[in-house]
Specification:
By secondary structure, the protein is α+β, with helices and mostly antiparallel strands. It is built from four helices and nine strands. The strands form two sheets. Strands 4, 5, 6, 7, 8 and 9 form a six-stranded antiparallel β-sheet that branches. Bound molecules: coenzyme A (COA).
Amino acid sequence: MCIGEVAHVSAGITYTSKHSVEVQVNVMSENILTGTKKLTNKATLWYVPLSLKNVDKVLEVPPVVYSRQEQEEEGRKRYEAQKLERMETKWRNGDIVQPVLNPEPNTVSYSQSSLIHLVGPSDCTLHGFVHGGVTMKLMDEVAGIVAARHCKTNIVTASVDAINFHDKIRKGCVITISGRMTFTSNKSMEIEVLVDADPVVDNSQKRYRAASAFFTYVSLSQEGKPLPVPQLVCALRTPVSKAAPNISGLDAEFYHTQAHP
Ligand SMILES: CC(C)(COP(=O)(O)OP(=O)(O)OC[C@H]1O[C@@H](n2cnc3c(N)ncnc32)[C@H](O)[C@@H]1OP(=O)(O)O)[C@@H](O)C(=O)NCCC(=O)NCCS
């Protein structure tokens, strides 16, 4: 979408499970000078209702009424696929992005980046927890920095694989959003982003992984055309991946690429 265009955002419920709601969001951009409209973004978001009295209690969802029988069947397939993918994300949930001194260009360490943010009242819902959109924006920002450092060109987000919010983030937490390149193809790159929350003023709680996702970015020429991406260079070092502790000698930086070609 370009500066000066008008965004039309529409959303609707497309599936309900016992405890979750799938919402499909479409963004149309309108050029008010020419009148042309086009679909620019599509996203599927899953919400889980929580009790107002106890934010740790998950509530049941009133089932949505489908206009066609197939809608429910298609929705169930998406729900099951999303649940399976989530299990995989949980399994990778232990990885930590470690800084490296004097990294070589085009290695994972060269472009890996982090942002640290103090969660203030304007980041939060009425109940004092961070808005999902605030976290998503910071995650996209870090992924964009990683992509730009790697390519040194103008870059754009092409897509985001399920952002999983593993745990709530409370007002007053310090969050660290870390990103690293996990895969390069000819004209796109995959960046893993992890969000860790540190309840600094609450000694009873330790730092925890709050969210994670994979972003796909594309490098663009000055004319806005996709460019070839510099390929990741393998830098051999001791694996840091907790998710793959026994892969001795294998570059942990390439762990994701190897595990998910
Ligand atoms: C989402 C959350 C409430 C789930 O809690 P939980 O203890 O894992 O709950 P359960 O395992 O009982 O799952 C409850 C429902 O949520 C669904 N669910 C859980 N995590 C999900 C995810 N990442 N994506 C989609 N659905 C999810 C489950 O499928 C289940 O629905 P079902 O019974 O119909 O299958 C919890 O992980 C949380 O609070 N996360 C942080 C949320 C947040 O801060 N979001 C950003 C601000 S809005």
